[in-house]
Write a structure and sequence with these properties.
By secondary structure, this protein is mainly α. It is built from 5 helices and no strands. The chain has one domain.
Amino acid sequence: MKTATKVVIVTLVFAVLAFLSNAVGPLGGFWRPAADAPNPAGIQRLLFVVLLAVEAIALGLAVSFLLYGFPLVRAVSAASPGLTRAAHLAIGWLLLNWWAHDSLHLHVGMHNVNGLLGIEYGFHFTLIVSGLILLLFLRAGWRAKMRLALGPAGH
């Protein structure tokens, strides 16, 4: 089976599972919304469903990328093997974290400040770190490109 076919299958399977098991999904009972969670009405409900679907697809793509995307990252890398792997994982995290992040916000509610702090640090801080990893990864590529452009005389 071609990798592209595997990616589509894995993405769809995990997207469906993620959509069904978010905080308001039929399989998401383990993190049902808190009693003080707002109840959207009208177009708000539709907009939240669209967001949940996009997050589920992103999670599916993240799983596919984590399983099959490392050769792609390695192929464009001018960074160390460790930074290349970190960039691969950072991209995966940037895609998949939203599903759990939003569901945990609904589950914890707005009055559990310690729970909110845990969510904010656990997700926001790691997203910032992921962005910094990707910045370092791109910087390594830019430096390698500059060395090539300048040639031996530019060193």
